[in-house]
């Protein structure tokens, strides 16, 4: 039987991380029940797995684009369900895939009811397409990684403000025709920062503007979480920032005083950890621990985006349990409208959680928080969260392209 069963990954077993694949099985008995499994190991050596039960059609075939999972890690028709439902045996594990040069490798397999393997195939999901380049940058106060698309350009320039260094999103954006500089908000332990200097991030903006491959004068900034308020501050205070994608961040400067040109420009919005909500899984909901930025004593932390000429894309998940992203977004939209501004777009995902990432990676409902240093609940209904990631990935690229002037024709992603 094993030699007759075929497991195919279409159109190719090797693809970009953000591309879907079609999983098909042939050669089974008519109406045969089988278990489909996926397995992958992250960069820290943690094994993630998923499984789902399927029934073959009358011809002995299964097509995950068409057929529903009857039970397992998910139920219903989900073509990429085996990927988004990958999880570790232990709680609070985030799938670390942060290095652009190493592929995300997933082993798919088909098992009969007794457990015997009938067929296997390996999906190699790469972050850098053919011709894209990666360069470490250590210049002045900049500690980052630069990704350049194939070709001569000119290309639009984007700074990816990740809370901690991750090459996943910036490398994938380079495949789409953007020059991207990945810069972490925290290059050291957050507790070692008594103040944050906006000048250091301004250096990164200027670095991008001076690159020969970059077209146009403006730089885009994409951010999430703590990176969100740094991105807003760049738009409000630093010339050259033309477009900002703010994903599940805060409207105020969180946690650390922000300085620019040797003067404090924003006070820190602090936390009250007594307002955390513990859960049975030993992870905490910290959404309600953040002080209200609209209270009089906290207004010095609000980022004055109403003074910015940049264009904003605000993205908020209503099930973000890290903080009140939807509330912060609504406040910023209302403030800009009050000032007669129309330089913004907003999108809300009702059942998505905090960690909106490029699509087709494993959903992470809870994990160790790098700033507070204990496990937290990120939120998100898995299927809806995965759908939000697919939608946002396309939307943010369209937004950046439309607001970053560049003479180059759109560069297609290449394998």
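^ structure tokens above, recovered residues below v
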């Amino acid at each position: 039987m094993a030699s007759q069963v075929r497991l195919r990954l279409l159109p190719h077993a090797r693809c970009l991380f953000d591309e879907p694949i079609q999983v098909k099985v042939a050669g089974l008995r008519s109406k045969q029940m089988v278990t489909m499994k996926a397995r992958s190991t992250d960069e820290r050596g943690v094994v993630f797995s998923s499984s789902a039960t399927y029934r073959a059609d009358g011809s002995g075939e299964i097509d995950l684009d068409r057929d529903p999972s009857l039970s397992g890690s998910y139920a219903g028709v989900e073509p990429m369900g085996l990927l988004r439902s990958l999880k570790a045996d232990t709680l609070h594990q985030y799938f670390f895939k942060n290095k652009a040069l190493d592929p995300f490798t997933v082993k798919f397999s088909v098992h009969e009811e007794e457990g015997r393997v009938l067929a296997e195939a390996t999906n190699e999901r790469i972050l850098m397409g053919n011709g894209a380049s990666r360069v470490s940058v250590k210049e002045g106060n900049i500690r980052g990684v630069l990704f350049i698309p194939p070709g001569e350009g000119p290309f639009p320039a984007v700074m990816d403000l990740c809370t901690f260094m991750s090459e996943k999103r910036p490398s994938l954006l380079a495949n789409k025709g953007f020059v991207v500089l990945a810069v972490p908000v925290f290059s050291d332990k957050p507790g070692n920062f008594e103040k944050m200097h906006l000048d250091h991030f301004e250096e990164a903006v200027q670095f991008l503007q001076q690159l020969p491959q970059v077209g146009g004068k403006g730089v885009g900034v994409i951010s999430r979480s703590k990176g969100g308020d740094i991105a807003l501050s760049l738009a409000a205070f630093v010339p050259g920032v033309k477009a900002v994608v703010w994903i599940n961040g805060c409207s105020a400067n969180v946690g650390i005083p922000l300085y620019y040109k040797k003067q404090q420009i924003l006070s820190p919005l602090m936390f009250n950890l007594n307002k955390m909500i513990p859960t049975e899984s030993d992870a905490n909901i910290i959404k309600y621990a953040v002080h209200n930025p609209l209270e009089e004593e906290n207004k010095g932390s609000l980022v004055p985006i109403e003074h910015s000429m940049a264009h904003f894309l605000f993205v908020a998940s209503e099930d973000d349990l890290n903080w009140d992203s939807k509330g912060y977004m609504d406040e910023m939209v209302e403030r800009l409208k009050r000032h007669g501004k129309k330089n913004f777009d907003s999108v809300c995902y009702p059942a998505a959680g905090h960690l909106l990432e490029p699509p087709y990676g494993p959903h992470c409902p809870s994990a160790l928080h790098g700033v507070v240093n204990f496990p937290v609940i990120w939120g998100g209904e898995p299927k809806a969260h995965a759908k939000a990631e697919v939608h946002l990935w396309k939307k943010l690229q369209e937004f950046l392209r439309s607001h970053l002037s560049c003479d180059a024709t759109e560069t297609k992603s290449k394998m």
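The first strand starts at residue 6 and ends at 10.
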